[in-house]
Design a protein that fits this description.
heterodimer, A: alpha/beta, 9 helices, 6 strands, B: mainly alpha, extended
Chain lengths: 255, 201
C-alpha cells in the first residue's frame, strides 16, 4: 500500500469514526441509549453473588500486556482495566474482596487507582487495600511463565471463587485457566488472539471473543462514552462487511 | 483541572505519533516511545515495592498459613539475592548464570506443563454433551487424522483438513481479527478525543 493510500485510509477511518463518535456521544448524553445484545456475563454475576455468601475472593487479570510499552497490547490492557473497574464495583458493592494481578509495572499504579476508585464508588472506601493489586512478574517471554505461576498460587491459596482474565494473553493463559477449571472456579476470559481463544473456550465458563472484550466496559458500567463507542464499532462493522460483499461481487463479475 | 492537562498531553502525544505515521516523517514519535521505556524502568521500582509489601505483610502477620509464609520468605530472600547479584550489572557472569541456569529452566518447566493442560482441556471440550461438542469432536478428529503421517494414505482426509483450515476456520479468524481491530481503533479514538480517562486516575 502506498503512502497516499495509507494516509487516505487512516484519515478516513479517523474522521468518520470521530464524527460518528461525536454524534453518538451527544445522543447518549441526552439519554438515548440503544438496546445492547446480551454478553455472556450471567455466570460471573452469579459467581460474585456466591462469593458474597461464601466470603470468597474474585481474581481479575488485565492480561500480561502493558500500556504503550514495546510489545503492544495497549488496547487489550485498557479493556482489561475496564473489566477490572466493572467487576470491582459489582464485587465491592456485594462486599466481595477483589485481587488484581499484573505483569506490567506501568499498569500496577493504574490498577491500584482503578480498584481504589471502585471501592469509593461502591461506598466502601475503607475496603481498599493496595496489597490486593499485585505485580507478579515482568511481561517478557520468560516473565510470563512467572506471572502464570503467581496467578496459579493465588487461585490455589486465596480462596478464589471467580476468575476474570480479560486482556492480552499468550500460551501462558492455559496454565492459569486450566487450574481454575480444575478447581471449579467460575471463569470469564477474553482475548482477541484466535490461538488463545481456543484455550479460553476450553477452560472458561464464558468467553469474550475479540470485539466483545472491548464492549465489556460498556456493559458493566453503562457509561455513555463506552456505549457510544459500541455504536461506532457497529457502524464500522456494517461498512466493512458491505465493502467486502460489494468487492466480492465486483470481482466475480469482472473476473 | 486535575484531568485537563494530562488529557491534553495524551491527545497531543497520540496526534504526534499518528501524524508522523501518516506523513512518514520522524520528529518526536520515537522519543515519546523511548520515554515510555524510561517510565517503565522507573515503574519496576514500584513493582518491587509492591512485591516486598505483599510478601512482607504476609510474613509479619501470623494469620496466613505456615506454608504460605514460608514461600513468601523464600521469595523475599530470592529477591534480595538477585538484587545483590544484579548490582554489578545485568551482564556479569553470576547474573548470567542465575538467568540461564535458574530462571530460564524454571520458566521452561512451567511451560512444559502446557502439553498436559492442552490434553486435559481438549478432553473437557470434546466430551459429547451437546451438538456443538459433537461438531467440534468431528472437526477435531478430521484435523488430527489429516495431520498425522498415517493420514497421508487418505487424500480425502487431507483435502478435508485443508478445506476446514483454509475456509471456515480462516473466515472465523478473520472475523475475530476485524472485530478486534475495530475495538482497538475505537479505544484509540476515545484517547484521541479525550474521552478515555481511565489511565489518568
Amino acid at each position: 500500500m502506498g503512502d497516499i493510500e495509507r494516509m487516505v485510509g487512516v484519515l478516513l477511518v479517523f474522521t468518520m469514526g470521530g464524527a460518528l463518535y461525536a454524534y453518538y456521544r451527544l445522543r447518549t448524553r441526552y439519554g438515548r441509549l440503544p438496546d445492547l445484545r446480551p454478553l455472556p456475563l450471567k455466570s460471573l454475576r452469579r459467581a460474585i453473588k456466591r462469593a458474597a455468601e461464601a466470603g470468597t475472593t474474585v481474581h481479575v487479570s488485565p492480561g500480561v500486556g502493558g500500556l504503550g510499552e514495546p510489545g503492544g497490547g495497549t488496547a487489550e490492557t485498557l479493556a482489561g482495566l475496564t473489566a477490572l473497574e466493572g467487576v470491582a464495583r459489582e464485587a465491592n458493592a456485594a462486599g466481595v474482596r477483589v485481587i488484581a494481578t499484573t505483569a506490567s509495572p506501568i499498569v500496577l499504579p493504574i490498577a491500584q487507582a482503578t480498584l481504589e476508585q471502585a471501592c469509593t464508588a461502591s461506598g466502601y472506601p475503607e475496603e481498599y487495600d493496595p496489597s490486593d493489586v499485585r505485580f507478579l512478574a515482568g511481561n517478557t517471554a520468560t516473565g510470563r511463565a512467572a506471572y502464570a505461576a503467581g496467578v496459579v498460587e493465588i487461585l490455589h491459596h486465596e480462596d478464589v471463587s471467580a476468575n476474570v482474565m480479560v486482556g492480552q494473553f499468550a500460551d501462558e493463559y492455559l496454565l492459569m485457566g486450566e487450574v481454575g477449571a480444575q478447581r471449579g472456579i467460575t471463569q470469564l476470559a477474553g482475548s482477541n488472539d484466535p490461538s488463545v481463544l481456543a484455550f479460553m473456550v476450553a477452560s472458561a465458563d464464558d468467553t469474550l471473543i475479540g470485539e466483545e472484550m472491548y464492549a465489556l466496559g460498556a456493559y458493566l458500567s453503562k457509561d455513555p462514552v463506552q456505549i457510544a463507542g459500541l455504536q461506532v464499532q457497529d457502524w464500522a462493522r456494517i461498512l466493512i462487511v458491505g465493502a467486502i460483499v460489494i468487492l466480492v461481487i465486483v470481482r466475480a463479475l469482472i473476473g | 483541572m486535575r484531568y485537563l492537562i494530562p488529557t491534553i498531553i495524551a491527545i497531543l502525544a497520540g496526534l504526534i505519533v499518528l501524524a508522523e505515521f501518516l506523513l512518514g516523517v520522524e520528529v518526536m514519535g520515537q522519543k515519546l516511545l523511548d520515554w515510555v521505556v524510561i517510565l517503565a524502568a522507573f515503574a519496576v521500582f514500584l513493582g518491587l515495592v509492591n512485591v516486598l509489601r505483599v510478601h512482607g505483610t504476609r510474613l509479619v502477620r501470623r494469620t496466613a498459613p505456615f506454608l504460605d509464609r514460608f514461600y513468601s520468605f523464600i521469595l523475599l530472600v530470592t529477591v534480595i539475592i538477585v538484587l545483590v547479584i544484579g548490582i554489578g550489572g545485568s551482564q556479569t557472569p553470576l547474573m548470567s548464570w542465575t538467568y540461564h541456569y535458574v530462571y530460564v529452566p524454571l520458566s521452561a518447566t512451567m511451560f512444559s506443563l502446557l502439553a498436559f493442560y492442552v490434553a486435559s482441556a481438549a478432553y473437557r471440550v470434546l466430551r459429547l454433551r451437546s451438538g456443538e461438542a459433537a461438531v467440534m469432536l468431528v472437526v477435531g478428529l478430521v484435523i488430527l487424522l489429516g495431520q498425522i503421517p498415517m493420514g497421508s494414505d487418505w487424500p480425502v482426509l487431507q483435502d478435508l483438513r485443508e478445506w476446514v483450515l483454509s475456509v471456515p476456520a480462516l473466515a472465523g479468524i478473520r472475523g475475530i481479527i476485524i472485530g478486534a481491530a475495530l475495538g482497538a481503533i475505537t479505544t484509540g479514538l476515545r484517547v484521541l478525543l479525550g474521552l478515555e480517562r481511565r489511565f489518568l486516575l
